[in-house]
């Protein structure tokens, strides 16, 4: 028996192991482990929309998930105040009542803009949209 036999046996075993796992890797995640289905979030509309803290701003479409409308409206108004504290076209860059918010803004040629805002804290979510007239 030569010294190469243990190495050859180890190499052969390793090769067999790799070849045996290739079909599972190529099959994709469906065979490996089932994925948890993401739950669909149900939103509740909150009407009427709260009054904006400044003229020229219209808040609309407040919707909440896993929370009440009163808190949703409060977060919406406080987000608007936070945003306006950074100027007429400012953005809020801090948490509002513990909610992390982000907005998608669409600017218009006349200087006005409209935005959609989503604020989240755990499973609680507030969504609203607003329009702001040109300054």
Mean pLDDT: 83
Which band does the percent of strand residues land in? 25-35%
Order of helices and strands: HHEEHEEE
Q: How many β strands by DSSP?
A: 5
Task: Name the strands of the widest sheet in spatial order.
Answer: 1-2-5-4-3
What is the domain tally? 2
* Termini Cα gap: 90 Å
**Total number of helices:** 3
- What class would the helix/strand composition place it in? alpha+beta
Cα-based radius of gyration, to the nearest Å: 27 Å
The general outline is elongated
Q: Could you estimate the helical fraction of the residues in percent?
A: 25-40%
Largest sheet: 5 strands, antiparallel
Report the uncertain regions: none
Description:
With 135 residues, this protein is of the alpha+beta class. It has two domains: 1-35; 44-132, no CATH class. Helices cover 33% and strands 27% of the residues. It has three helices and five strands. It has helices at residues 4-27, 29-32, 69-84, and strands spanning 44-45, 57-65, 100-107, 113-121, 124-132. A five-stranded antiparallel sheet has the order 1-2-5-4-3, with helices on one face. Strand 3 and strand 4 (113-121) form a beta hairpin. The chain is elongated. It starts with a helix and ends with a strand. The mean pLDDT is 83.
How would you summarize this macromolecular structure in one to three sentences?
The protein is α+β, with helices and mostly antiparallel strands and 135 residues long.
Topology record:
Elements: H1 4-27, H2 29-32, E1 44-45, E2 57-65, H3 69-84, E3 100-107, E4 113-121, E5 124-132
Antiparallel strand pairs: 1-2, 2-5, 3-4, 4-5
């Amino acid at each position: 028996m030569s010294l190469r036999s243990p190495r050859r046996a180890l190499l052969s075993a390793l090769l067999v192991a790799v070849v045996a796992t290739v079909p599972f890797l190529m099959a994709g995640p469906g065979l490996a482990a089932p994925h948890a289905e993401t739950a669909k979030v149900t939103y509740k509309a909150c009407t009427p929309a709260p009054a904006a803290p400044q003229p020229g701003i219209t808040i609309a479409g407040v919707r909440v998930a896993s929370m009440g409308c009163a808190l949703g409206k409060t977060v919406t108004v406080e987000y608007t105040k936070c945003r306006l504290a950074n100027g007429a076209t400012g953005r809020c860059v801090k948490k509002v009542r513990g909610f992390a918010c982000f907005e998608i803004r669409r600017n218009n040629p006349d200087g006005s803009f409209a935005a959609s805002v989503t604020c989240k804290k755990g499973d609680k979510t507030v969504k609203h949209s607003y329009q702001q007239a040109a300054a």
